[in-house]
């Protein structure tokens, strides 16, 4: 967990929220191999008691993607293993122990967008812009972007970004599905933290189902998806915590749903 470009701290009354920050602003938080491995290790060894995480970037930008200075002269085999290393790390973010809320600002580009796409909720401020400069650098996405980005915005929009170098601003990025929340400049972290505190209060099995079951159900044929849903629902309902929460509502002791 000790990497000079990756800050970790805990927040909240029970220290239930992890704040994880890329702290390499001089290089716009470009992700070199060491930093990618540190992200993987951190999600593999998340301390007990952490129930949600916020991921953000220090400085003017969230993340400039792959550290291009390390691309150099990799041969095909090394390139394959490098991409697989990114996959393993971002897999730990997406299918890790806790929901991850990305707080976005400035550049969210290339591998930075791939990292953001592995998170569960994205909060963007008005300075955010999204791009996939791989197209103009003569390379391809390699951090899971070809799988995750079409699920957010569709394959046609992703292809357009890479063919033409199109950059989405914060407003259009929210409309097409990059971010679920759009907030004024400078407020993404604060909003992400507020959401993380809220998410951390959910029953752990509900968050588990949202991280691990929902995206897999979405990929299953309908009949299998419905069966997986039923099994996950039965497991979640059987937890003592679920029973207590439902009882609290029936006794008039839990919050009602209100119009927003
Ligand atoms: C970098 C990187 C980087 C900045 N690798 N060093 N990603 C890209 O193609 C995006 C490349 N970066 C940019 O377009 C811009 O830097 C930004 C829009 C992100 C920010 O612009 P700006 O004007 O604030 O900063 P800057 O002056 O361009 O950069 C500051 C320093 O960071 C500078 O180094 P310096 O030594 O001259 O100060 C830059 O060289 C350095 N820097 N971005 C290395 N990415 C798993 S596959 C994923 C594939 C990809 O991600 S490809 C897309 C890579």
Automatic annotation (TrEMBL):
UniProt xrefs under Pfam families: ECH_1 (PF00378)
InterPro entries: ClpP/crotonase-like_dom_sf (IPR029045), Enoyl-CoA_hyd/isom_CS (IPR018376), Enoyl-CoA_hydra/iso (IPR001753), Enoyl-CoA_hydra_C (IPR014748)
Signal peptide positions (record): none
Alphabetic keyword roster: Lyase
Alphabetical list of NCBIfam families matching this protein: PRK08150.1
Family statement drawn from the similarity comment of this UniProt entry: Belongs to the enoyl-CoA hydratase/isomerase family.
PANTHER family: ENOYL-COA HYDRATASE, MITOCHONDRIAL, ENOYL-COA HYDRATASE-RELATED
Name used for this protein in its record: Enoyl-CoA hydratase/carnithine racemase
Species this chain originates from: Rhodoferax saidenbachensis
């Amino acid at each position: 967990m000790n990497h000079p470009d990756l800050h970790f701290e805990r927040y909240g009354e029970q220290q239930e929220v992890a704040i994880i920050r890329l702290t390499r602003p001089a290089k716009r938080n470009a992700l070199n191999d060491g930093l990618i491995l540190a992200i993987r290790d951190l999600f593999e060894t998340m301390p007990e008691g952490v129930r949600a995480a916020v991921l953000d970037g220090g400085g003017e930008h969230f993340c400039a993607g792959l550290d291009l200075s390390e691309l150099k002269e990799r041969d095909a085999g090394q390139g394959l293993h490098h991409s697989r290393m990114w996959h393993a790390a971002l897999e730990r973010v997406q299918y890790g122990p806790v929901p991850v809320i990305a707080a976005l600002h400035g550049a969210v580009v290339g591998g930075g967008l791939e990292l953001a796409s592995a998170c569960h909720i994205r909060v963007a401020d008005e300075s955010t812009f999204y791009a996939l400069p791989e197209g103009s650098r003569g390379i391809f996405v390699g951090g899971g972007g070809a799988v995750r980005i079409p699920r957010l915005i569709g394959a046609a929009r992703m292809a357009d970004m890479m063919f033409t170098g199109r950059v989405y601003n914060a407003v259009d990025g929210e409309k097409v599905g990059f971010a679920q929340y759009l907030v004024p400049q400078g407020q993404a972290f604060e909003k992400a933290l507020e959401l993380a505190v809220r998410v951390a209060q959910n029953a752990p099995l509900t968050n588990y189902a949202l991280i691990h079951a929902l995206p897999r159900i979405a990929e299953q044929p309908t009949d299998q998806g419905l069966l997986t849903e039923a099994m996950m629902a039965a497991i979640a309902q059987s937890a003592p915590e679920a029973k207590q929460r439902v009882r609290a509502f029936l006794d008039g002791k839990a919050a009602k749903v209100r119009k927003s």
